[in-house]
Structure formats: C-alpha cells, structure tokens
Write a structure and sequence with these properties.
233 residues; 0% strand; elongated; mainly alpha
C-alpha cells in the first residue's frame, strides 16, 4: 500500500502547482547563487515532509487504535469508500460539510505566519515556510490522510504521508526553478488521471479490508490467523 502514496504524490503534484504553486513562486530564494538556491529549496521540501510526517504519525496512531480494537479492516473499507465517494459524488454535496471550518482560526494563524516568513531570508525561513505549507487545507492531502488512517502502525502512517510528500517534490522543484512550464493541456490530462487513481486506490483499500486471503492485496484477517493457530495447540 505504501507505494500508492508515492504515485499519488507524483500525480497530485500537478494539483499542488495550482494550490501551493503561488507559495513556491514567492520563495525568497537566492537569484545569484545556484548552490545556495538549491539548499534553500531543499529546506523548503524538508519542512513540508516534516509536517506531512507529523500528520501521518497522528493519523497512524489513530489507525493503530482501531487495529488494536479489531476495527482495522472496517476502517480500511470506510477509507476506500470515502475516497471513491469524494470522486464520484457531486462536489456540491461535500460543500455542505466544510471539515476545515473548526480550524479556521488555526489556518488563519498559519497563513499569517507564512506571510511573515516569506518576507525573511534567514536560514530557517525556508524550512518554516515548508512546514507551515504542509498544514494548509488540501483535498489531496485529505485523501492521503485516509490512507495513513488505514495503516496499522504509527510508523506506517508517518511513512505513508512522507512518501506522498516525496512524490510531490520533483514537479514542485521544477516549478520553483522554471516557473509555470507545464502547459494547460498537460495539466488537464494529468488532473483527469487523479480521480481515476483515487478510485483505484480506494478499491484496493476496500479489497484489503475484506480480507479475501489474497497475498499482499487482501491478506486474511489477523483474528482468523490467530484463532487457527490457537486451535492447533
């Protein structure tokens, strides 16, 4: 399942250009020193990866709790259904449920801190901008969070989000260096692929939750394995 996070990040980075691109364009990187510019952009990405890892850790912890209480498979099915529902159902249905509303004050403070950080050029500025950027609301991040929630450990949840972030780095880095080089037609083609991939990943999560005893794809429920082992004794 972890590989899906990286692929999701690669495809989702085209969406990230529109959402996080303006922040990337405004990074106060050095214009005269290529090496310095490279490390500044690297720090920005490290900040984003760190915040994604923290988010994954939190939801991985929640997912582990479900796993310990025997609800991991049901949670995997629910996560898969939600992924597919977000793609298939009209967006107007979800506009009634604004999940970010309770966090408006926090988001406002993040944006304010981002504005302040963008005006500075200290060594920690780029890490701070990336770190704050990672906590801004984003539909694709929410999808990745569903994946982290369906993992079975804190480590896997954090790693899932880390791999998602790594997948966004190549295109986001290219944007910082070369600006908006991706044509509108190319963006539209890739953005059409994103919903298809989300549905496929959702289907995989559902299959995994069903416990059909298919190696790697849908392993048998842990409770069944434990009970069969106990019966042998």
């Amino acid at each position: 399942m972890l590989y899906s996070a990286f692929i999701f990040g690669i495809l989702g980075s085209f969406h990230c250009i529109g959402m996080c691109g303006p922040i990337a364009f405004m990074l106060p990187v050095s214009r005269n020193n290529p090496l310095k510019k490279f490390f500044q952009i690297l720090l920005y990405h490290f900040g984003r990866l760190f915040s994604y890892s923290i988010i994954g850790l939190a939801f991985g912890l929640l997912g582990k709790s479900f796993y310990l209480f025997g609800f991991q498979q049901q949670l995997s099915i629910v996560a898969g259904v939600l992924m597919i529902a977000v793609v298939i159902l009209p967006s107007k249905r979800f506009q009634k449920f604004n999940f970010s509303r309770p966090l408006y004050k926090v988001i406002g403070k993040i944006k304010s801190s981002l504005g302040t950080a963008l005006k500075k050029k200290t060594p920690d500025t780029f890490f701070t901008i990336g770190f704050l950027n990672g906590f801004l609301p984003c539909g694709l991040v929410y999808m990745a969070v569903f994946g982290a929630l369906a993992t079975q450990s804190i480590f896997e949840g954090s790693l899932y989000m880390l791999l998602f972030g790594l997948g966004t780095i190549p295109l986001m880095t290219t944007v910082v260096y070369f600006g908006s080089f991706v044509g509108g037609a190319m963006k539209k083609r890739v953005q059409r692929l994103i919903p298809v991939f989300v549905v496929l990943i959702g289907a995989v999560f559902i299959l995994r939750g069903m416990g059909l005893d298919i190696p790697y794809l849908s392993p048998a429920p842990v409770t069944e394995v434990a009970s069969s082992a106990a019966s042998c004794h």
